[in-house]
Amino acid sequence: MANKKKKKKAQVPFRLNILFFAVFLLFSLLVLQLGVVQILNGETFQAEIDRTSNDYSEIPVPRGKMYDRNGNLIVGNNAEYAITYTPDKGTQAQDRLDVAEKLAAYISIDPGDDGQYGLTLRNRKEYWYLENTKTAKSRLTDAEIDNMDNGEQYSTMLERIEDEEVKFANFTDQQLEIMAIKKELDKAMALTPQTIIKGPEVTSEEFARVAEHLDELPGVNATTDWERAYPYNDTFRQFAGRITSESEGILAEKEDYYLTRGYSRNDRVGRSGLEEQYESVLRGRKEKIKYTTDKNGTIVDSDVAFEGQRGKDLVLTIDMELQEKVNKVLRRELKTAIQNQPYENRYMDTALAVMMNPKTGEILAAGGQYYNSDKNKFKNAGLRTITSAYSPGSAVKGATVLAGYESGVIDPGDYFYDAPIDIKGTPIKKSYRDLGKVNDLDALRRSSNVYMFYIAMRMGGEFNYQPGKSIDFDPDAFAEMRNYFSQFGLGVSTGIDFPLESTGYEGSDPRAGNLLDLAIGQYDTYTTMQLAQYVSTIANDGYRLRPHFLKSIHNPISHSEELGPIYQTNNTEVINRVDMSEDYIQRVQEGFRQVFQESGGTATRHFANKSYKVAGKTGTAEADVYDDGEKVHDAENLALIGYAPYDEPEVAFALIVPKAGTGNRHPINHEIGKGILDAYFELEKGKEEE
Question: How far apart are the first and last CA of the chain?
């Protein structure tokens, strides 16, 4: 019994030794592993701890400016205070709320007329959630927590916040302001500056307070921004166009176009006019900032990768002094006509005019005035010279005569007897009075409708017209006549450097009577710009030039208001030479001269004594006013086109006044014509004297 006890005692130390040995081995393995981690892989793991990444952000720069042909600033940039926010990559909603709460102590947000800061129900629910996170989470079931991802849980929690819990009365004004600031912060994308408030909304005191406390406002910066400025106010502003706001950002319908060209979603871009047309050069080159962030997305360093450069400047063909004078003349004559005959001219509300250099296509002025009778106010409507089309009446007769020459249905000097045209089944058509025997020059000088009717009938296949009987007629004559007209720019795009242009209305009823109306400008419609291009083509010996607003593009000079070196010039571009004999063109030029200079000319008594010697054509077209299909007023469109001096044209013009009353009236088209030509030549004389 005693031996057994001794043997049992001897076994206990042996087992302990095995245990100690096992512990020793494990400890040795641990030491070995630590050695491997520290000695062999230490640098690798330390690099992972210290790992950073580089990200780039682009800061928008001011857009290029626009100047007129004389160096006068049309569109510029005004610097203004701005408070911006650039979040880190890992910034969370709670982080933005913390910034908003601190920022609210230094700035104020306009609450709006209703005092509600433009806050939506969702804005209020998101704020309530951040302030009551535990309560919101308690409204989720265990199954929802297990089966929903974070996004689904968040949406469900917001849905379960009762509207009553977030009504405006439940929040203080300070809380509402914090929400409004956070709403702006939430628009910011990682490492991309977002403007919170700027311009008049930021006082100098607020700007200074924020700048002083930037160290406690992560991501916030007190800087300067810019806003478009218009020294000439509304004059030419429609043509200059507008840009989007930062909240609008790039245009949704062209999102892919902008994003593939390096734009950010909140970049301001041209959305109309010349701002849109020349967006690629006006936008400038953004300043590129390199941000160094740690693995948590926190910015640890930043540096300018390369400096930005504001957009290139445009020098336009427009003469702003002339533009202002043209608008003044349009207002004056529109007002005079309405005051002289308020009843007859009760539907007259618009006057439009374009002036351009027929040798270069440069647009010197494009003016329009609209009269609002309810408010008794005038408004700039120059854009209608491109977007609104009207029947111009006899102004197109130069093109009709040339179509007659070229199609071979008449020869220069051919005579017709001007008496009413009576085609069976068609209302009688005639000139303003019987003019007797007229040739082509007489027809232009005295504005014979009947002469044009004969051209149209012959182009349609009728060479033996007899009063009261039907005529032979080929509907293809419409296409033929329009083809000749289009060579002058009538009924087709002018090619102008502008994103919006009407080409007018083309009648669709191919009856013989309508072809006769087409020949005297009372069927299809044309814009004032098309009429200007048409008369310029005649003045320019048959060469149709592309009208343009851009004269040259200039590189900007840093920290200077002066124009920089030329980057690109916009040269004269010939679209086409009309397919007609030069002799034919000269024949019509003579007819146009007689309209303004010879006895019996429809414009002679208004212009014969002018030293600048005009050539061109008058125009009157029926433009009766209808209401619900019922005629309520007899009205006419009054047009005038021309160029001066007729022997060496330096300016061409076209103007139209729609819906003028009939009868003994103020000769508004002639008065406008004299007014704008007087203004042009007076300005040119002043420049020569200088």
Answer: 140
